[in-house]
Amino acid sequence: MLMISPRMATGAQEKQYPPSLLNFFVYNPKFGPKEGEEEKKILFYHPNEVEKNEKIRNVGLCEAIIQFTRTFCPTKPAKSLHTQKNRQFFCEPEENFWMVMVVRNPMIEKNNKDGKPVVEYQEEEILDSVYSSVLQQCYNMYKLFNGTFARTMEAGGVDLLKQRLEKFFYRYLQTLHLQSCDLLDIFSGISFFPLDKMTYLKIQSFVNRMEESLNLVKYTAFLYNDQLIWSGLEQDDMRILYKYLTTSLFPRHSEPELAGRDSPMRLEMAGNLLHYGRFLTGPSNLKDPEAKFRFPKIFVNTENTDEELHLIVYKAMSAAVCFMINTSVELTREFCEQLDSLVGPQLTLLASDICEQYSINRRISGPEKEPQFKFIYFNHMNLAEKSTIHMRKTASVSLTSIHPELMKILGDINSDFSRVDDDEEIIVKAMTDYWIVGKKSDQRELYVILNQKNANLIEVNEEVKKLCATQFNNIFFLD
Amino acid sequence: MSEEHYLELCGNPVQFENASSVNNVFFDEANKQVFAVRSGGATGVVVKGPDDKSTVAFRMDDKGEVKCIKFSFGNKILAVQRTSKSVEFINFIPDLLHLEYSQECKTKNASILGFCWTNWNEIVFITDQGIEFYQVLPDKRSLKLQKSQSINVNWYMYCPVTSVILLSTTVLGNVLQPFFFRSGTMSKISKFEIELPGVSKPAKLSLSERDIAMVTIYGQLYVRYLKHHSRTLNNPGAEVILYHLPRDGTCKKMHVLKLNTTGKFALNVVDNLVVVHHQSSQTSMIFDIKLRDTEGTLNIHQPVLPARSIHPYKIPLTGPAAVTTATPVPCELYSSTWSVFQPDIIISASEGYLWYLQVKLQPVVNLMKDKGKLMDFLLQRRDCKMVIVSVCFQLLNGSDKGNLSVIATVFDKLNQVYKEYLEAEQSYPVAVETGQSRGNPAQKRPVRTQAVIDQSDMYTHVLSVFTEKKDVSHKFIIAVLMEYIRSLNQFQITVQHYLYELVLKTLVHHNLFYMLHQFLQYHVLSDSKPLACLLLSLESTYPPAHQLSLDMLKRLSTANDEIVEVLLSKQQVLGARRFIRGVGGHDNISARKFLDAAKQTREEMLFYTIFRFFEQRNQRLRGSPHFTPGEHCEEHVAYFKQVFGEQALMKPTAS
After folding, report:
1. What are B8's strand-pairing partners?
2. In which band, very low, low, confident or very high, does the pLDDT at A277 lie, cut at 50, 70 and 90?
């Protein structure tokens, strides 16, 4: 399928406003079914300053829309509501618990003939699929640290639930950067660290030995350079934990190795000559007599066994290990010291091994194998994601190296793909000189952005074939 | 109490008439024969060999007391020494005269200390003034002097395995002169000196032949010296010193074995272990020079295990004795009447028994707690395979279960030996082809010792049994399997697919699909058709297995037909066609298979497309769009006509 994008580059003297969060609320219609008790339905509302009646009105509206759309399809009520100024997203992560996110559409402020500013809403510029995924992620992240709503209700009723929602979302919503959400939020994938078999087996061996020696450990995950190598957790739990680690925890702890030579952090390291290991969660300094041995709690396998675990994240150089331990066990100073003395030296060694092996492999494969293309790859089966478009993620924003317009096209192609099961290929001619190719083969998706002067369709097709031959020669990818 | 006696006497000793006033007993180390000489031979000589069949009995005239009696190799010629001046010979070759002939030593006034056969017809006389090397000419009933060497000799020692004679020279006796014999030649090896603990004054013979022996350990010849320490010096005890005696080059002090006690000792070598018997404590200890504690040129060794006595032994009753006494008689171990010979022989002349000493490995397993060291020890033993296998099995099971790092160490040790064998095996044909082996006896076909425990052994005896165990956690099972695979990879040994299948089955059995997925993602389980097929079969329980399987088939690059089959079975007819065209195999595919699949989709346009594709192929390949009868597509042609009409068939175009 070939489409010519009708979009034009925007003018220079206009002022643009990116999409932003207007409201975010959680409610349960069963909690206040009677008239006059509507407020009871509301479990969380952002922003909190909004007047009570407005809160009730907005919740009521959502309830009405969902109820209304149910008459058309009882199992699939509305997922989003498009209006001129904003877009609302609905999600029912647990029975009768609704989460709603209201996003203000991006705007362009133009001067009209009289020189007066006029706001023009770009209601078609944001994608349902992207923001529905963001909403789902909000729930998943909440659930990771708080467990399901139902479980909290059992434990402490509505009050506890309200308390937890407040505590969690108050901070979390500030980290939502809606303007930079894109295709990767839909995938919510995991970047895997490329590694040779032998080094991988060494890591396996390390993980197994650590689990045996620290026999409390239930699950372990191993990451290098913010990329996953091993997960003992199930895929869905790992997916959200990975998101937390790479977008929140890791960026908050800058590498001491990267810190300046004379920085205080560096000096502290020099005191511990044996290894570079340190805790990213829990005690920052084991020798501190005041140190607290409290770790974040996470909830996994909520579908069946519903486990509550301590999350210990321990890092040496670029290698990070997550040890997950049942919360029925109390973690003591002794345990942390044992972990530090056992894991620290071995992880330090392993990290330098991985680093060495990685640079050897890179040297062998040579720079010509480095992609000159901009592409995004995603495999639904193992959630593997690879992007040469996105820069390293930071705590605040994910930076892309391409125009948002192009990202939007990628999202559009993705929406087309999700409508059918068959393998597909879509080639789009975008703004000047840009070609975008989307390919879907079985459970894999590949998006390539080419910028070649005067290229024609055949040439573009050839280029993509070449890319597949070099980058994806070891997987079954239909041409 | 667990069995701790790690040494035992063999169950089937050589029995002979015990020594008495009328019966003299001699032992020849070269042929391992016991001679029972009754009344100087007049009433019979009985020669018992190492096995029952080699018994020889004969008579000879009593010409005085026999000092020494030995057959040449193959029992061809018998040599008897009765005086210090001469040796008598008797031919045992059929058709040759049986009469005795005699040879006096050539050196005047010398007395013969003894003689040794170095071949079936070559003999060396050792006198107090030198050695004389003769060739025996049995048909002429005479001897011919080949070579001789004058040297003052205190005593001598002979190692039949390497044909080396060692002479004790000088007043103290501690300068040893070795000679090496091979097919008619005698060569002198450079002499060396044994360090004595203290020099006595006045100078007298201080090195006794009892304290010296020549032994072969791990294929190398050593001169073994038992160094006694005088108790007054507050020394920890006696030690055994091993001097390495290479065929060329000089003799070097190499190993020191610390006995940590004093007293009377006797030594054997069994299965390359030095066994030291201590009479007063009635125990024995063993040393393994390959288990090194320290690095360096001189290795100091401690006993491998705490000293234990030889396993209690009961004399088996045979013959008429069995009738008279009902119970076997316990044998007195470490008896003062015992004589110990190299390498592994213990003789009780008074009771008339010759035993071979043996090492039992199972008690060693019980005594040695360090599994890494135990493996090092076992891997050097001759009959080690089943013991190693059982140690591995114990390591993974039950109360004695080891932790993963110990298991890893053991696997690494096993695979080290395995790899060395594989490499030798690989380089052997190369060496033969390039002719390197000619004239180079070192390049022999590598022998597979019992210590080579390959993947199939591990699989059959250890891993497959272990993974079936119900009481072991699956986490541990998988960790062990991965550890074994890691170890194989570390030694660059190609892992056999059945190990991967074992991993896969274990993971599937415990529903650990995500783990499996990750292993496959990092190619830890190497690609193979059997594995890919196994994955395909998992698709119904774990849908991603389909993708994993296709990827694997793709990487194999020899499985294009299988890929087409898989795609067709999924009714991905166009996908299959695109794939086969991409790899350039579309001229050889079966039209019928594709048409069958297309028809099954019930999509008429798809059928049309595929049908047309094959018509075009036929046109291109054979100049006509029609299918040949061999393609069995009549049914599909009929269906095509029925749906699209006869006129829709492609018309042959003249080319």
Report:
1. B358
2. confident
Residue B497, pLDDT > 80, answer yes
Tokens of A30: 């069963």
- Distant-in-sequence contacts of B246-252, Cβ < 8 A, 24+ apart: B246/B220, B246/B221, B247/B180, B247/B189, B247/B221, B248/B189, B250/B190, B250/B192, B251/B176, B251/B178, B251/B189, B251/B190, B251/B192, B251/B223, B252/B297
pLDDT digit string, tens, across residues B81-100: 888 888 888 888 887 777 88
Q: Which residues in A lie closer than 8 A to residue B555 (C-beta atoms)?
A: 474
Give residue B52's pLDDT. Answer: 66
Average pLDDT, chain B: 84
- CA–CA dist A356, A351 (Å, integer): 9
Contacting residues for B97 by C-beta, under 8 A, at least 6 apart: B91, B141
Residue at token pair 């049309």: B608
3-state secondary structure of B362: helix
Q: How many CB atoms lie within 10 A of CB A436?
A: 23
Mean pLDDT within B544-562? 88
How far is it, in rounded angstroms, from Cα A219 to Cα B433? 54
Is the Cβ of B570 closer than 8 Å to some Cβ of chain A?
Answer: no
Of B541 and B432, the one with more pLDDT: B541
Tell whether A411 is within 8 A of chain B (Cβ).
Answer: no
Is A204 in the B-facing interface, judged by CB distances under 8 Å?
A: yes
> Is the minimum CB–CB distance between B573 and chain A shorter than 8 Å?
no
pLDDT of residue A407: 85
Tell me the nearest-neighbour CA distance from A230 into chain B, angstroms: 7
For B564-585, the pLDDT digits (tens) are 888 888 888 888 888 888 888 7
Residue A204 to residue B482, Cβ atoms within 8 A: yes
Q: A201 and B582 in contact by Cβ < 8 A? A: no
- B554 to chain A, any CB pair closer than 8 A? The answer is yes
Span B419-466, pLDDT tens digits: 988 888 888 776 666 655 455 555 567 788 888 888 999 999 888 888
Nearest-Cα distance to chain A for B579, in Å, is 6
Res A368: pLDDT? 52
Measured CA to CA in angstroms, residue B122 lies from A354, B28, B101, B135, B559 at distances of 66, 16, 15, 5, 68
Token digits of residue B131 = 């050695």
The encoded tokens of residue A105 equal: 């559409």
Q: Cα distance from B14 to chain A (closest Cα, Å)? A: 53
Residue A259 has a pLDDT of 47
Q: Give contacts of B548 with chain A, Cβ < 8 Å.
A: 381
Upper half-sphere CA count for residue B283 (Cβ side, 13 Å): 13
Number of helices followed by number of strands (H, E) in chain B? 17, 32
Q: How many CB atoms are located within 10 Å of the residue B247 CB?
A: 12
Task: Of A412, A410, A452, A406, give the one whose Cα is nearest residue A431.
Answer: A406
Give me the mean pLDDT over the B138-151 stretch: 86
pLDDT of residue A478: 66
As a whole number of angstroms, the distance between CA B583 and CA B609 comes to 20
Q: Are B19 and B27 in contact (CB under 8 A)?
A: no
| Interchain pair A382, B544: CB under 8 A | yes
In this predicted model, what pLDDT tens digit does every residue of A419-473 receive, in sequence order?
887 788 898 888 767 888 998 888 889 998 888 777 888 888 888 888 887 777 7
- Does residue B239 sit in helix, strand or coil? strand
Higher-pLDDT residue of A319 and B138 is A319
Closest residue in A to B581 (Cα–Cα): A479
User: Where are any strands of DSSP class E within B153-211?
Assistant: 155-159, 164-169, 175-182, 185-188, 192-193
Contact between chains at B483 and A381 (C-beta distance less than 8 A): no
A234–B578 C-beta distance less than 8 A: no
Of the candidates B216, B128, B116, B104, the one whose C-alpha atom is nearest the C-alpha of residue B165 is B116
Q: Residue A444: list chain B partners with CB under 8 A.
A: 547
